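Title: Comparing notes on inverse folding

I've been comparing how different people in this forum approach sequence design from structure. To keep things fair, I'm posting one structure and asking everyone to reply with a full sequence. Here's the target:
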């Protein structure tokens, strides 16, 4: 396989899945710390100003939402972390694009 992993490795099960989700949560907690620096000034890393970082974060979140499935247990868990930050970044960017 070109990426050096089997399909089974790409979709971890059991304890490995728990470990992967815990690592993801730790990493998203770090990203959350960047967002909390602008709390009160707006929903984006630079307050009310959308940045490349916001688009990058939203892109990864959209990727996870699509790959895991919008109704999957995993995506529901992820989007609830950090007071819903990972769901809300997608909503906030959509509102920004729509001029709302």
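Reply #1:
Here's my take.
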């Amino acid at each position: 396989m070109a990426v050096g992993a089997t399909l089974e490795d790409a979709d971890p099960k059991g304890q490995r899945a728990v470990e992967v989700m815990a690592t993801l949560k730790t990493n998203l907690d770090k990203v959350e710390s960047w967002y909390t620096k602008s709390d009160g000034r707006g929903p984006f890393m630079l307050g009310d100003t959308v940045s490349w970082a916001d688009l990058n974060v939203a892109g990864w979140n959209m990727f996870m939402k699509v790959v895991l499935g919008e109704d999957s247990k995993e995506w529901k868990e992820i989007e609830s972390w950090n007071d819903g930050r990972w769901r809300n970044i997608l909503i906030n960017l959509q509102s920004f694009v729509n001029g709302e």
